[in-house]
Amino acid sequence: MADVVGQEHVTRTLTHAIESGRVAHAYLFVGPRGIGKTTLSRIFAKALNCEKGPTPAPCDECDACREIMAGSSLDVIEIDAASNNGVDNIRDLRDSIQFAPARSRFKIYVIDEVHMLSSGAFNALLKTLEEPPAHAKFILATTEIDKLPSTIISRCQRFDLRRIPTTLIVDHLRAIATKEGVDVDGDALLAIARGADGGMRDALGALDQIISFKGTKVTEEDVLAVFGLVSRTQLEGLAEAILKGDMPKGLKIIDDLDRGGKDLRRLAVELMEHFRNVIVRQQLGAAAASALDVTGEQMTAIDAQAAMADTPRVLRVSEHLADLEGRMRTTLSRRTLFETVFLRCCRATSATTLDNILKQISNLKSQISQGSPSQVSQGVAGQISQGAPSQVVQNAPAKIPQSAPKAAAAPTGAAKNAQSVPKAVAAAEPETPAQEASSRMTTASRGAPPPPSRVAQEAAKLFSGHITGHIPPNP
Ligand SMILES: [Zn+2]
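Above: query sequence and zinc ion SMILES. Below: predicted holo C-alpha cells.
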C-alpha cells in the first residue's frame, strides 16, 4: 500500500480498515486520469487476497499476489465500463457473484470508469450493491463523479485521490532513473512531471518512452521535444521580461518559442501558474517555499521575481493571462494574440496603480490645506508626470473628480490652482504626454489663464457631469 505515491490520506484509511478487519464491501475511487486509481485498486485487491493476509503489505510472492499483478486471477474481475456498459454485462456479474471465489478469500470486482454504465446497468448494479454476498468486494473507479447516481455513491466508501504534487513525481522519477542507471538532470525530470500534469502513470510512461529512445542519458531538451513544452529558463525569462517591462527581450523569446513549434496556449497556462506562485511568495514570504509545489531551482527564480513588482500589478498580469488562455481557443493567430497580451502585461507592471494615484491626490490635498500655492502646483505637476495618466482615465474616470473638487474648498489662494487638478488629470489622455499637463500647470500657477487646448475641451466633455464649474470658459 505504501507504493501508492501521493495518496497517503487514502492508503492510511485503507490500511487501518484491513488491520482492524473492518473492510467495507464497496469502495469508490474518484480522481482525474492517471493518478493511481487502477494501481491502488490492484494493490488493495492484493492486500485483501494475499495468502499471507489480509494485510496492508501484500507479499507479492504468493500465487494470489502474482496472478493479480499479471491480471490473471480468477477471483479479481476487472471490468472496463467504457466498453461493457450494458445491462447484460452487469446481469452477468450478478449471476457470477453468487459463486464462491475459486481459490482466494474474496471475489473482487473492479469496475473502471463506472460512470459510463447505462442507466439500466446502474439499476442492476445498485441491486447487487444493496445485498452483496459476504465473499464479494467492489472497487469502483471514476474520473467523473458527477455522472454517477447518488444511490450508487451512497452505497460505497468514497475516496478522492489527489493530483500528485510535481515535486513528489520528480522524486519518484529520480528514484526510478537511479535504479535503472539512467542519468537524467533535474530540469528534465521536472519537464516530465509538468508534461504529465499530476498523473504518475503518464509520467512513468513518458520516462520509459524517453529512456528507450535516448538510452542512458536524458536531457531537458529531449523531454521538451516530446511534450512541446517550454524550458523552465525560457518560461522564467518571459516572466522576468514582463515584470521588468522588457518588451524586446520578451518578443524575442516568443519568436524563438513559436519557431520551435511550442504550444503557446500551454505556455499561457504555465505562465499564469508561475505568476500565481509569485503572488503566493509575496504574500507568505519565506513560508511560501513549503506551500508551493516547486523545485529548488524554480523557487530561486520565484524569490527573485517576487521583489520585482507589487501584488496588484502581478494580479493584473494574471488577469490578462487568464483572459488570454480563453481567447487562445478560438483565435486564428495564436502568436499575434500572445504578443499583444504580452505587451499589455508589460504595461500592466510598469504603469502606476490607481491606489498610488489616489494616495498622491490625498497627499496633495493635505499640502494644499497647509502649503503655499507654488509648492502645490509643483507638487501636482511632479506627481502627475510620475504617474500613468492613461490608467487614471481608463480605470476610474468617476473617482478622480470626486476627490479633486474637494480640493477647491482650500483657501482662496490655493483654490485657483486646485481647480487645475481635475483638469490636469483629465487632460492626460492616453495620447497626451504628461509633460504637457505639467507645463500647463506651471503656466496656471503664474496667474496666466490656461490656454484652452483641444485636450482641455475633450476633458471638459469627458467630465462634464462632474466638474463643469471648474473648467475655465473659452475666451
Ligand atoms: Zn501474497
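The first helix runs from residue 8 to 19.
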